[in-house]
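Sample pair:
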Amino acid sequence: PACDVLPHRVFKAPAQAEQIAHIDFAVSMGSLCRYRRERLDQFESSANGYLGADESGRRRFGDLIARMSPGTRHPLKVGLMWSSNPARGVDWGERRAAKKSIDPQLLELLSGCHDVRFISLQNRDAGDGAAEAPGLDLLDFQDHLRDMADTAALIANLDLVISVDTSIAHLAGALGTPVWILLMKSCDWRWGRELETTPWYSSARLIRQTTAGDWRPVLETVARDLRSLAPPRASTGAADEIASATRP
């Protein structure tokens, strides 16, 4: 349909008020899906996602992973994102981001997962990457992630992404990469209330808090299910096999 998309800053600039003077109806971008897709049968699902990473970037990060793991062979490459963007300066945003984020010290619960190479997907806005999780032998690519295209290229090299509810979870789902999304008790409405899958991304699995603020059982579930992945299956690097093995 014919529509105008206005950046949020327009509403903060009185000199540009004439741009919105003609508006009869308005909706925020994030709420469009509430009105355009009201039933599950209105979703089109693709096992391969609907985005693709730049091939040269994918090769570059593949080479970086190999160089940063000399002499080692980890059958399963797993990306971790444990912090939501803190939305600094916006009080309600900071509070919600804190609830969606996991104390990196709890990531030590994953340290018993052998045959796994953990890779930090944290950017500088979200935290200090591997330095925040000393209990894990994390590869950290903060200095190489300039934008979302770089992040997509890195994710394209991974067998699995484990992320809190942030843009990384959406990016992995859009790429068709298997992703376990860790949700706080009062999560965003888009994820529903009880489902372990989502119509938004066929490669996603939802793992939810059962008690508000308590991430330990969530990470214990993650650790248990990671350990249950057979190394021979993981070593193939086949995303569809891993997705099949890890989806509920």
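The chain has eight helices and six strands.
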